[in-house]
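re: ur question from the group chat, yeah i did fold both. here u go
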Amino acid sequence: MADGPHIVLAGASGTIGQALVRQLLDQRFRVACLVRAGHEPASLPEGAAQRPVDFSSALDLDRALAEIAPDTIISCIASRTGAPKDAWDVDHRINTRLLRAAEQSDSAKHFILLSAICVQKPRLVFQQAKLAFEAELIASPLDHTIVRPTAFFKSLSGQIARVAEGKPFLVFGDGTLTRCKPISDDDLARFICECVREPARRGQVLPIGGPGPAITPREQGEMLFELTGREPAFRSVPLGLFDLAARALSLGAPVSDWFAAKAEYARIAKYYASESMLVWDSKARAYSAEATPEYGTQTLRDHYVSALAQRAQAPAGRRSGSAA
């Protein structure tokens, strides 16, 4: 029977959220997940309560937290697209409503936010929205912990199927422009669980990566070629394509949300193709692998081995999706 602190989790339906639910339950926390009212119930592990809420209603969020009476709020809420309107609505406004409800609660003392390491060098709308909420949280009377993970395994899995099918691995430049220390869903979930119980992590902004060393896209490709037994074959894509696309699409942005969103997608793609997901050393004006904390045991290689095994076992018609 669960006997640990009572947790309210927002954003439980995503891959990180689901991993976090499992970890919280394994560690005997009592867990209540806020889910969108009017939607199908989320598929969550047994033992996690679900509380439908209208995230656009401050009153409904107030009622939900008063009813659940949590000790800690954890938000994994984030825009799925990064489009300007969606980013401000989700990353900032919904999180702010949740924070205000937590402040009104008689029980909540601690708010943990899953943010992103890329906000260190904000050039994109979703980064500005995340930082705006981080500032709201830091100014709140509640204790706060802000977790800024590096790359996720899922974000580095898009070319598994390409390589397995004998296609070239796509890189920008020579494939060494960026580096990251990716962290698995399960390791990140364990780290967040520790933040609930460790007082030293309160009042902190915590960058966190997985087991090193930092890896470049070219090294990711080489790893996949080795695991599939194929000869390395890379194809370079020029970064300038993103700039051209962003400029062209921006012409329609003043009159069309569709164009504004597409232009932002091009800028997002350029950012991730050219910026490392490591701690930024402002004095050295460079990303630092040494300054990026490491946590956990699961490596990207472990993930690739597992994904390739799952792909091999999947029916032929479903193999492309199984590797994503």
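okk and heres the other one u asked abt
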Amino acid sequence: MIEFGEFPKMETDRLIMRRMTLNDVGFYFHHFNNKQIVEGCCFPGPDNLEAAKEELERYCIKPLKENRGIRWGIVKKGSKKLIGTCGIYDWNKTARRAEIGADLDPAFWGQGIMTEALRAMLRYGFEKMELNRIQAIIDSKNIRSIKLVQRLGFRKEGVLRQRTYFNGQFRDDVVLSLLKKEWTNS
């Protein structure tokens, strides 16, 4: 059974995907309080820096330490500034399945950055983590993210009706998945 061990820093043509640390708390606080990101993930941002620190530890640092997932900070080459994150979590080693999540500063939308990052992450998941199934659960109103994972080969499996309660309304989530046999390493 795979163990993470050392953090797997990755590079693509334009990106560096690196470990996040508590030094990234300022980025985390501002990024996850961006109205468009909050709306896309249906999860309210942290109220203050202390709450941001706790969330950063829970969602970005501890999963690797506890060998149950991994989250990368995304940086454009030639810069040190984080522009987003992506990760693999809820890793079930026996069933060889996991879920993915990703977010990107809206200033960088439409440039193929998240496609590039997710391709590298999927390759890692299927090749290094030996996953057979990777799923994404995305708010039904987040059409950009749904189309992104579909371009990467994910297939819609169904809708989890009114699964989330956000901003005073019940919201549907779309379940999409990609199996290793369907994945093309492009």
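fwiw on the second one: The first strand starts at residue 10 and ends at 11. The helical segments are 25-31, 35-41, 49-65, 113-128, 143-151. idk if thats what u expected
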